[in-house]
């Protein structure tokens, strides 16, 4: 089971839990798994189709991953959803 | 300057060759925006709103159209609906293209002083300017909303009835009138403050500031009969401009060719299309090429500055010096459209310290100012100004040395960051130790002199880059990338190609492609070019070497697996007599299958964090409040400094801009929301006499995400100066500065308050 | 920029005739460092621009037994580069050498600085402190005005229709005198004065007593201000920090500043006092060293 770090605004859904465990082979599957326990989770993260909502970056094991929801995760993976950041 | 040790296995990386574009730039041969001319070219001028907030009732262009020599006039009505509503800007950031289009030219409402209302193309700039003055616009003037606190106060005039909070992290976030709100956190802040032995709580304000690039925005547009438009422009990113023009003008992307010219500074402010869509529309209507040159005043009034802010900061620590809680609230100006540097500002505020209990709140606030744009480490300078002063105050209350206090709390490789993920390799503690050991830290100070320190962090960006390498038969190499060169990156990229191929840097000839000649490449922003485009170059070089190894195998009639490649040296593992240098093999490519070239497009994911610690000595004239900078030492981790002199140059440039924020730079609006200081006389950037030599200490903690260990360097040096100067002022005369800029009148006011409090 | 006519009169009469004929729609161009800037931003729209650089009377720079004549078209740079002038009028060097950079100083004139009548003009306080007279010519002939009476408000002068400035005349410095100009700017160069000040003092032979003093403050009222009382209070008093503080207080009370992007009322009042004191100290110091 991978570990998902719940962003502060969504901790209302998880009853204040900052990290939860979820099953799945991709980030998307983890999100769908979590949505079963915490309804509304998917809607907060997933935008159109297989894309994350605008403004969110997906981090898997320390790297901001370009494939977002489609990125594969392992049993020991840690997944984070962070706000997008621009640069100058 | 302390030069980093040149690691023995690097031949090119870590040296300081002369830049290939240097002579062209100092002799005037280089072609910048205004140097570009084309036959039949008309000149465009822009009519801008004199009001900060107004409904446009009518625009009458008839008088202007009658002026001889006027060839085209456009208003918002000439623009189609954008062809795409939202576009990604990399790293998950999105831009609302309706906002972008409305920022290019007002439709119905003007949101800031300088917002474009109409534009004219004429035979010469003087006629165009006269024609602009003949356009009659009727406005319904609305009350302007000029700072974050009044924008969020009940009863404030509303800029947009509905707006797209953006591209603003979580849908669950609150949308208020004129603002949206973000909250992040960890632990339990209330409990954290209960554990704290010392707590500091303060409020800060900072003003709107501008990047102040010396070359203004300048472009020329020309259409052909197939409906394809070519735009020559000065920009940080040709593809970014192409995408914006294509969407705003509703033209297929393949029909917009953007040719980047040399750029006279950008700092984040030149990846937005302001005049390019105007030039394109004027050129289309006039059926002639059109050049548009923004004046200095226009660029200050109407191109994206960095946000003014209001900040509340409360932090607590235990007696032993460990930080236990931080409760920080930041309101950043977004300008006339949503989307300020809120996430970055909020997250960078404390990312460099381990704090178990944190609440971070951010507001993205609409005000009647130009839409803010990135400016070197967007958002971080403001939040750092607050947090690094609170850090010093906590250290003072604890009786600890301020650097020691920071060492005690500095994040280390593997520590959990505020959002939970482990910190990639960083050298923060080593950097702070270097500060403590540096002679500057203990040097004596005179009367009214003080020393300040600040420690800062910036994320940096990865994003997409492309590169192509072509091997010439004489062993030289053409290198084309899509990255506009703001800082010497032609050379730092050529150096990485040379390093990877095992050839001399003089044998790599770098060029910057236009959008029709090179693979997709995002802007030169986020300190990413030497890092990310460097990886593209490195990957292309690996492909070249692999192909060439195959050719060697062919020539030696052996299996490619038997060819050993060490940089540019090819050997047959089974026959020591078989050896080729890169040059020798290059000469044989023609007859072994034809010339070799390779392309690579990459989107690197492991960006190295940027850390900087600055030390500054200042002196205050206590009669006038003027602060003079006496000595400056900047410490920064470059990962691997590809060209140490360029790294030093980036650091020095960032420091000078940071000192501008610290001392004098601010947009000064009158009560009606009109920008009064739209000139470099009154928008006071530092001049040469205002800054001492800036000493640079480069440290190197390699970034495992880059083959040579590179991390970005361009942005973080702007972050510490404002806080460091504020801390130095306190050290000198015992007054705490809570507002930027720390201009003489403000410092004098503080001195007078201090005197009357003492009396 | 709008269309306009450019004429280079070779004689004063020709210039005066054109001025009389075209009235307010004609403007003289000395160095052009104010005029051209204003025309480019449409703040000035003359139909006729008269080049002053070829009118002989306006190009006189002459030091004689009774004083110094500075023609209205003489550049700042030629003033401070003249060693004899620089030795006798160091306060003129203080101000002419800090207007813009070398290129600007090569074009800009004291006459233009005066006729432009900016409250912050950097040469005017020194001219006032040095007791300079403005010499004018117009359709009705010649007249003279003390420089402190020349500016009437921002951009407004006592020049009448068809009248022009020919030169300023500065008297020979008295024995045991010294003068000093300084300005306060937030940066260290290339800036516009938040407040500026000039002081000229005449001391007794032992240099322990003031005989007389003239103090002028700029950028702290609609025009550069001659603060007669601040100078008068020093007459016959000992040279002391107390007296300097008293003059500074009077100057600070006399100014009528505004708040704008360059400074606040309060800051300008404070600066008027600080700069008056510093100008006086500088002038006294020079008087003690033979005005060097
Ligand atoms: C980069 C820069 C820096 C500057 N720095 C400073 C500074 O530090 N301090 C400062 O005080 N000023 C400064 N200025 C402003 C300007 O240079 C000075 O005011 C200068 O002395 C003006 O002289 P000029 O000969 O160029 O005037 P012009 O522009 O030629 O004329 C100014 C005005 O006076 C009128 N005029 C000129 N001659 C006559 C005459 N004989 N009779 C009647 N009217 C006349 C003109 O019609 C015009 O209205 C600066 C300007 C620039 C561009």
Explain this structure:
- The complex is a heterotrimer of chains A (88), B (759) and C (292).
- With 88 residues, chain A is α+β, with helices and mostly antiparallel strands.
- Helices cover 18% and strands 24% of the residues of chain A.
- Chain A is globular, with a radius of gyration of 12 Å.
- Mean pLDDT of chain B is 95; it is low at 1-7.
- By secondary structure, chain B is of the alpha+beta class.
- In chain B, helix 10 packs parallel to helix 11, helix 11 packs parallel to helix 19 and helix 18 (644-663) crosses helix 19 (720-733).
- With 292 residues, chain C is of the alpha+beta class.
- Chain C contains eleven helices and 14 strands.
- In chain C, helix 10 runs antiparallel to helix 11 (265-288).
- In chain C, 50% of the residues are buried.
- The mean pLDDT of chain C is 96.
- Residues 27-35, 37, 52, 72, 98-100, 104, 107-109, 111-113, 115-116, 121-122, 159, 164-165 of chain C line the site of flavin-adenine dinucleotide.
Helix count from the secondary structure assignment of chain B = 20
Biggest pleated sheet of chain B: 7 strands, mixed
Radius of gyration of chain C: 19 Å
Q: By CATH's scheme, which homologous superfamily of the largest domain in chain B applies?
A: Aldehyde oxidase/xanthine dehydrogenase, molybdopterin binding domain
- What is the number of domains of chain C? 3
Average pLDDT for all residues of chain B: 95
SS-based structural class of chain C?
Answer: alpha+beta
| CATH topology type of the largest domain in chain C | Uridine Diphospho-n-acetylenolpyruvylglucosamine Reductase, domain 3
Q: Any idea what the CATH architecture of the largest domain in chain B is?
A: 2-Layer Sandwich
Strand order of the largest sheet of chain C: 4-5-10-6-7
Strands of chain B, total number = 29
What is the subunit arrangement here? heterotrimer
CATH domain class name of the largest domain in chain B: Alpha Beta
Bound molecules: flavin-adenine dinucleotide
The number of domains of chain B: 3
Listing every helix as H and every strand as E from the N terminus to the C terminus, the arrangement of chain C reads EHEHEEEHHHHHHEEEEEEEEEHHH
The largest sheet of chain C, given as strand count, sense and whether it forms a barrel, is: 5 strands, antiparallel
């Amino acid at each position: 089971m991978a570990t998902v770090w719940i962003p502060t605004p969504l901790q209302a859904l998880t009853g204040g839990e900052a990290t939860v465990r979820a099953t799945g082979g991709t980030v998307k599957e983890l999100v769908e798994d979590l949505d079963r326990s915490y309804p509304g989770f998917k809607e907060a993260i997933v935008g159109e189709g297989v894309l994350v909502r605008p403004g969110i970056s997906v981090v898997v094991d320390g790297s901001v991953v370009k494939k977002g929801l489609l990125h594969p995760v392992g049993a020991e993976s840690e997944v984070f959803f962070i706000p997008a950041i621009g640069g100058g | 300057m302390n030069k980093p040790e040149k690691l023995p296995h690097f031949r090119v990386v870590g040296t300081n060759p002369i830049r290939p574009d240097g002579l062209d730039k100092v002799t005037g041969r280089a072609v910048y925006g205004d140097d570009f001319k084309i036959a039949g070219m008309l000149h465009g001028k822009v009519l801008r709103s004199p009001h900060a907030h107004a409904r446009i009732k009518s625009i009458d262009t008839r008088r202007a159209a009658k002026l001889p020599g006027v060839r085209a006039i456009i208003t918002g009505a000439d623009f189609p609906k954008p062809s795409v509503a939202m576009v990604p800007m990399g790293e998950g950031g999105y831009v609302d293209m309706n906002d972008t289009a409305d920022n290019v030219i007002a439709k119905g409402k003007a949101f800031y002083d300088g917002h474009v209302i109409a534009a004219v193309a004429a035979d010469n700039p003087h006629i165009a300017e006269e024609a602009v003055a003949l356009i009659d616009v009727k406005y319904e003037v609305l009350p302007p909303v000029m700072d974050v606190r009044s924008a969020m106060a009940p009863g404030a005039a509303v800029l947009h009835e509905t707006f797209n909070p953006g591209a603003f992290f979580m849908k669950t976030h609150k949308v208020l009138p004129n603002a949206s709100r973000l909250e992040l956190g960890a632990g339990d802040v209330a409990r954290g403050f209960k554990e704290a032995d010392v707590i500091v709580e303060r409020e800060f304000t900072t003003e709107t500031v501008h990047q102040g690039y010396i070359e203004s925005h300048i472009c020329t547009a020309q259409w052909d009969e197939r409906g394809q438009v070519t735009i020559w422009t000065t920009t940080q990113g040709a593809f970014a401009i192409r995408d914006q023009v294509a969407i705003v003008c509703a033209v297929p992307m393949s029909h917009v060719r953007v040719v980047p010219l040399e750029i006279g500074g950008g700092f984040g402010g030149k990846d937005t299309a302001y005049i390019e869509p105007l030039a394109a529309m004027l050129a289309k209507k006039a059926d002639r090429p059109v050049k548009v040159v923004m004046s200095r005043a226009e660029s200050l009034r109407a191109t994206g500055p960095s946000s003014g802010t209001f900040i509340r900061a409360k932090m607590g620590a235990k007696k032993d010096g460990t930080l236990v809680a931080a409760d920080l609230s930041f309101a950043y100006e977004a300008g006339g459209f949503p989307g300020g540097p809120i996430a970055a500002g909020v997250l960078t505020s404390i990312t460099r310290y381990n704090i178990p209990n944190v609440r971070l709140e951010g507001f993205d606030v609409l005000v009647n100012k130009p839409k803010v744009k990135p400016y070197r480490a967007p958002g971080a300078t403001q939040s750092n100004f607050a947090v690094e002063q609170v850090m010093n105050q906590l250290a003072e209350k604890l009786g600890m040395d301020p650097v020691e206090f920071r060492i005690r709390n500095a994040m280390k490789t593997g520590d959990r960051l505020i959002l939970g993920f482990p910190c990639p390799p960083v050298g923060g503690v080593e950097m702070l130790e270097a500060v403590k050991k540096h002679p500057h830290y203990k040097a004596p100070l005179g009367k009214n002199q003080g020393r300040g320190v600040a420690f800062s962090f910036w994320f940096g960006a990865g994003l997409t880059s492309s590169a192509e390498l072509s091997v010439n038969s004489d062993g030289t190499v053409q290198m084309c990338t899509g990255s506009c060169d703001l800082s010497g990156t032609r050379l730092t990229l050529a150096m990485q190609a040379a390093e990877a191929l095992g050839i001399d840097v003089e044998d790599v000839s770098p060029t910057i492609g236009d959008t029709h000649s090179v693979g997709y490449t995002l802007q030169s922003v986020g300190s990413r070019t030497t890092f990310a485009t460097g990886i593209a170059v490195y990957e292309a070089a690996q492909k070249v070497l692999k192909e060439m190894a195959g050719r060697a195998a062919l020539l030696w009639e052996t299996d490619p697996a038997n060819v050993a490649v060490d940089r540019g040296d090819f050997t047959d593992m089974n026959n020591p007599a078989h050896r080729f240098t890169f040059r020798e093999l290059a000469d044989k490519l023609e007859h072994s299958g034809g010339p070799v070239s390779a392309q690579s497009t990459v989107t690197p994911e492991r960006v190295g964090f940027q850390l900087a610690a600055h030390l500054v000595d200042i002196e205050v004239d206590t009669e006038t409040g003027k602060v003079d900078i006496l000595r400056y030492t900047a410490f920064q981790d470059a990962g691997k400094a590809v060209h140490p002199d360029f790294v030093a140059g980036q650091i020095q440039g960032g420091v000078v801009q940071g000192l501008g924020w610290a001392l004098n730079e601010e947009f000064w609006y009158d009560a009606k929301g009109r920008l009064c200081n739209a000139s470099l006389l009154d928008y006071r950037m530092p001049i040469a006499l205002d800054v001492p030599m800036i000493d640079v200490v480069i440290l190197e903690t390699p970034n495992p995400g880059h083959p040579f260990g590179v991390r970005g360097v361009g942005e973080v040096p702007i972050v510490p100066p404002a806080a460091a100067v504020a801390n130095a002022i306190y050290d000198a005369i015992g007054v705490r500065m809570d507002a930027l800029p720390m201009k003489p009148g403000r410092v004098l006011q503080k001195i007078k308050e201090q005197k009357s409090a003492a009396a | 920029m709008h269309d306009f006519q450019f004429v280079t009169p070779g004689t004063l009469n020709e210039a005066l005739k054109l001025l009389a004929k075209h009235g307010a729609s004609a403007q003289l161009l000395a160095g052009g460092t104010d005029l051209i800037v204003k025309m480019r931003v449409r703040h000035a729209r003359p139909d006729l621009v008269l080049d002053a650089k070829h009118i002989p009377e306006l190009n006189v720079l002459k030091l004689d037994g009774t004083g110094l004549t500075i023609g209205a078209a003489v550049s700042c740079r030629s003033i401070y580069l003249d060693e004899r002038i620089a030795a006798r009028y160091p306060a003129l060097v203080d101000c002419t050498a800090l207007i813009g950079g070398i290129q600007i100083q090569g074009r800009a004139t004291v006459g233009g600085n005066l006729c432009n009548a900016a409250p912050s003009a950097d040469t005017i306080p020194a001219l006032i402190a040095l007791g300079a007279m403005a010499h004018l010519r117009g359709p009705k002939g010649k007249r003279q005005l003390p420089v402190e009476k020349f500016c009437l408000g921002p951009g407004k002068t006592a020049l009448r229709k068809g009248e022009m400035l020919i030169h300023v005349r500065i008297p020979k410095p008295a024995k045991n005198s010294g003068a000093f100009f300084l300005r306060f700017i937030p940066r260290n160069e290339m800036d516009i004065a938040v407040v500026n000040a000039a002081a000229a003092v005449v001391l007794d032979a032992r240099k322990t007593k003031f005989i007389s003093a003239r103090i002028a403050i700029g950028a702290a009222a609609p025009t550069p201000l001659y603060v007669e009382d601040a100078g008068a209070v020093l007459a016959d008093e000992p040279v002391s920090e107390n007296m300097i503080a008293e003059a500074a207080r009077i100057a600070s009370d006399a100014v009528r500043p505004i708040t704008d992007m360059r400074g606040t009322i309060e800051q300008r009042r404070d600066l008027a006092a600080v700069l008056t004191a510093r100008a006086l100290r500088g002038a006294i110091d020079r008087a003690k060293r033979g005005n060097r």
